[in-house]
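G., the chain you wanted modeled:
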Amino acid sequence: MHALVYILPLLFFVTAALYASVGFGGGSTYNAVLILSGADFRIVPIIALACNILVVTGNTIRYAMTGNLDWRALLPALALSVPLAWLGGRVPVSEFVFSALLGVTLLLTGLSMLFQRRWKRPANAPVTSRALVLMPVGAATGFLAGLVGIGGGIFLAPVLYWIRWSHEKAIAAACSLFILLNSMSGLAGQAAKLSSVGTLQMAKPYLPLLPAVLIGGWLGNRFGVLKMQPDHLRQGTAILILIVAVRLLYKVWRTT
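Predicted structure as tokens:
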């Protein structure tokens, strides 16, 4: 096994804390770190999705308790994303396709986080909801979430800012719920797929990663939700993601 595997709990703890601080789960980075550590690509999404769930559950609950979670307004995005996340989890892909998709996803994730401030709506902008935009975005993001093991919130956020869906805290809350439900659906699809081919038990050695992200996510969501000034953390996380994305895409390129 790659030497990186021995520091996975620490890496997952830090990733969970950073992502939770900015309202996301970290699924894309969990995937990349696992791939770089030498984990079998078939079990990578199910581990990442389980970690996602543990991280964003705390954020979702806290946002709901503060009155910032409007799940009804998010229904157009969830209507197709949740079932398609399950379908994406069921689709078998080759290691090359998985790694290439994940590398591109990470690259887009890092760029999205790095330039997130540019999406922010003016303080006096009206609140709107555009189902015709949210439904296809939710569908595409949900399928990708199940296929490669991400939550998809990082791709939903710029769309919500662009259509002036609501204020910043409400958008962060919506992304947390979006990630949670897509991760649960994608996890169910991945578990069904792995069970049918007898590889689900291969994920058992990675169970210690779950308490690491649970603790990291708890610390991160307290900082992010209570302070709501995580710009430096977001930018630092984006740079780390871009570094991992370049390394993963380089690995894919070398195998071609």
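The chain has a mean pLDDT of 83.

Shout if anything looks off.
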